[in-house]
Amino acid sequence: MPPLPEGRSLPLANPDADTPTLSIIIPMLNEAADIQTALAPLQVLREAGTEIIVVDGGSSDNSVALATPLADALLISDPGRARQMNLGAEHARAAALVFLHADTQLPAGAVELITQALNTHCWGRFDIHLEGQSRWLPLVSRMMNLRSRLTDIATGDQCLFIRRTTFNTVGGFPDQPLMEDIELSKRLKALASPNCLRTKVISSGRRWDKFGAWKTICLMWRLRYRYWRGVSASQLAKEYRNAR
């Protein structure tokens, strides 16, 4: 393991009882059908002192009204997941930031797992289990976890967690419309390897179910390859929208 960056081994616990140890930041866009179901399991964490921040990117449905009573803060952002998560990080009060997609569920004991992981590493992520109708989703999940473990690159679906100081050091999420999680991972792994937790978050496989498992796999691998070859995130975002 590479040397610890300065401050990395400091405990996360804050002596101020009113300051949360973790801030969970959830970007949202037109999630009225599912946002209450997504936020309901997090209420027990709120009661225990974890901060829940939902950042809306311009929903045209009833998402904001439904999410507001279930969050400590409901912020309105310019569109774009990276911008939404950066805004949430700016308003977060905790020493550790957790970026959770609206269609992803944390495992039992997540707060303890994240806190322990960040006592030895400055960032990390969970393994993932995709849940849906396609029989290929277990294979897709295993491929995602293996790829992440081999490359030290994490996707947003895997629930990235980061020390606030480290997040600030790398400048947060890059302001780009696609691959913001890949780019952030590249910047973070230049500082230190992630703590890759084998405990799984459960994420919706609705994208694979809707567009077809193999079609989606091929699309995402093609986009990642082109990003690696230097194609701009803006161009790839157009291709992604057109393919969908």
Give the N-to-C terminal Cα separation.
Answer: 40 Å
Round the Cα radius of gyration to an integer and report it: 17 Å
Run of helices and strands: EHHEHEHEEHEHEHHEHHH
Kindly identify the CATH topology: Spore Coat Polysaccharide Biosynthesis Protein SpsA, Chain A
How are the strands ordered across the major sheet? 3-2-1-4-7-6-8-5
How would you characterize this protein structure?
By secondary structure, the chain is of the alpha/beta class. The protein has one domain (22-210): Spore Coat Polysaccharide Biosynthesis Protein SpsA, Chain A, CATH 3.90.550.10. Helix content is 41%, strand content 19%. The protein has eleven helices and eight strands. The chain has helices spanning 35-39, 43-47, 63-67, 81-91, 110-118, 137-151, 164-169, 180-189, 206-211, 213-228, 233-243, and strands at 22-28, 51-56, 73-76, 96-99, 104-105, 123-131, 160-163, 195-204. Strands 3-2-1-4-7-6-8-5 form an eight-stranded mixed sheet, sandwiched between helices. Strand 2, helix 3 (63-67) and strand 3 form a beta-alpha-beta unit. Helix 10 (213-228) runs antiparallel to helix 11. The radius of gyration is 17 Å and the shape is globular. Mean pLDDT is 90; it is low at 1-10.
